[in-house]
Amino acid sequence: MTAVSSPSSPPESTAPARPAGREDGTFESVNPATGASLGRYAVADSAEVDDVVARARDGAVWWQSLGEPGRRTILRRWRAELVARSDELARLIHLENGKTMADAVIEVSIAIAHLDWAARHARTVLGKRRVNPGVLAPNHAATVEYLPFGVVGVIGPWNYPVHTPMGSISYALAAGNAVVFKPSEYTPGIGQWLVDSFAPLVEDRAVFVLVTGLGATGAALCRAGIDKLAFTGSARTGKLVMAACAEHLTPCLVECGGKDPMIVAADANLDLAVDQALWGAMSNGGQTCAGVERVYVEAAVYADFVERVAVRARQLRSGGAGAGAGAGGGGAHDHVPDYGPITMPGQLEVIARHIDAALADGGRAVVGGPNSVRPPYVDPVVLVDVPADSIAVTEETFGPTVVVSQVADLDEAVRRANSTTYGLGASVFSRRQGRQVADRLDAGMVSINSVLTYASIPGLPWGGSKDSGFGRIHGPDGLREFARSRAVTRERFPIPLKVTSFARGEKAIGQLRQLVRARWGHR
Question: What spans are recorded as compositionally biased (Low complexity) (predicted)?
Fold first, then answer.
């Protein structure tokens, strides 16, 4: 069986280099900007994964015994711990993932907001509720309740190594499950930090525990008898995860990548649209599954939009860009970078290949170009006139590049936005037609006059369709994703009409026919 790994959305045709295990059964975490070693972690084999899951099974029993009030208290204490140590965590993200401190602070802040929301709303969302029994069972009381699965496995990505896995971890814990977390092999230290910060609050019980390793460790977790798995990564790897989980009929939640579109209408606020297009495309070095990769602009404002995007993009700096380097030249040596390095070295090859393909297919680079790729950094790249069938348009790039295309009208914009195998996020900019356009977009999440806003609103679900995966994290849907529903009926009193018995007579069936006709026979 092919090993399951946890990269975050590299294009399907690529097999980027990954950290390699050593003969001593460990692998190394390094700073992607400098290559400096940050630590060494164990490569857990299947027996070790099975042992961790078994311990988590015991932890789940204790965690569930606390009831919702007890779990809420501990999760709120954890929230306070994360707030108190947020700068420490942000610094670790900066070192191990490579993103800027500012981006790391944003990521930690959003993760804390989601943890708080899950803890506060678990009772309301998952509490037992009464259901109307209807006309066929009027003598019964009916309720539905939501029970924890037991042990939930989480395989996390490297691009948002706190926010993304915490979107599953927080909600799974709030729903009453124990969690076994396998972080990306690029960010094991961050995973270890999260687990260690929680452990004292439960007196080191195995409620939230860690397994580290490479692809085979992720595969072992899928097969370890867990009760549900939440995975974030590429569609290619997501299919392998599903196949591994299918061996034990383990349900899974799969959140994969995207090739997310932005639509700019002729009546849009162009300054806002330009600002948000660049943020959506370039922040975190473009390593965002729901980042902006394609922009469709109505003809009336296309030239103006491209000119403004180019001016602004030339001012952005990747980490390490000094005077005269990168897309725009200029800038002081001590200039704080707008985004950091590409975390996964093999992704640099993907980005370069997409830029080369766009130009070879007849496109133009109005900002940057092939020379923008200077490992481990990539300077901003803005491409125009790229054919719709170029891989720069059809495959996920996962870098600080964006393709801007002119469209005749919003109908064409919607058609081209939807012409992809992905269905994760989308955005539309318009003063008067934003909602109408948003309603036509084939995406799990849409922002109007902003990008990625749905990620920071804990009450909204996160997830997509098609090659972007299935299932939801965040919000009420996210809590219910980590609970199994159970229906319960209770007879309150007997009634004469009883058809679910061999003691019934023909009269009872006749009465049933009359009841059905009276209740539902009208048009």
Answer: 1-19
Q: Which of 458, 461, 452 lies closest to 118, judged by CA?
A: 458
Helix locations, 154-233, DSSP H: 163-174, 188-198, 215-222
Pairing state between β 129-131 and 140-148: antiparallel
Q: Which helix (H) or strand (E) holds 73?
A: helix 67-84
Determine which one of 48, 96, 255, 396 is catalytic. Answer: 255
Hey, where are the domains in the chain?
48-255+475-483, 260-457, 493-520
Which CATH code for domain 260-457?
3.40.309.10
Residue 15 has pLDDT above 80, yes or no: no
Q: Does residue 212 have a pLDDT over 50? A: yes
- The pTM score is 0.92
**Dmax over Cα atoms in the chain, in whole Å?**
92
Instruction: Quickly count: other Cβ atoms within 10 Å of residue 382's Cβ.
Output: 27
Q: Which CATH number fits domain 48-255+475-483: 3.40.50.300, 3.30.1510.10, 3.40.605.10, 1.20.58.480?
A: 3.40.605.10
The answer to whether 278 and 270 have CB atoms below 8 angstroms apart is no
CB 14 within 8 A of CB 257: no
Check if 255 is active-site: yes
Residue appearing with tokens 């939009």: 305
